[in-house]
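Possible regression after last week's pipeline update?

I re-ran a chain I had predicted before the update to compare outputs. Posting the input and the new output here so someone can diff against the archived version. Not blocking, just want to make sure nothing changed silently.
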Amino acid sequence: MYFYVFVAAVAALYFAGTAMQRPRPGVIAAAIAWLLYAVYEYFVANGTLCDANCNIRVDLILIWPLVWIATLFGVYAPGQWTGAAKVLGGVSLFFLACTAALFLYGILVEKPAAERAAREKACAQGQGGPECPPAAAPSTGSTTEQK
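New output (post-update):
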């Protein structure tokens, strides 16, 4: 998680440096957005905002698009994209895709597997329910009926 802090800090420094050279509202907003995200991610990484078990981060569904939009406003100059801006935009898009993939993996794979394991454990402990298969009927010892 500290890797996200590092990437966000580098992006904030890039936009702060660009804002020093050409102060524009979009560049300043992007620098502030990345700086706030770096601080937020630092507090998540060190356990202040989230414990070690929070591997599914729904908050990023809201945060990443906002940071991405601020990045677009900061990077886009009328009619041109600089080489560094393209790299920064590509890295941001890559992290957005990775976060979305991890989120989907947690929702589609991890959560159903955990629910299935809990259900099987409850059935094994004898706690019957509609999700438990019926118990096998005890056999009487003979396979044919006598008439």
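Follow-up from reviewer: compared with the archived run. Helices lie at 2-21, 25-45, 59-75, 83-124. Marking as no regression found.
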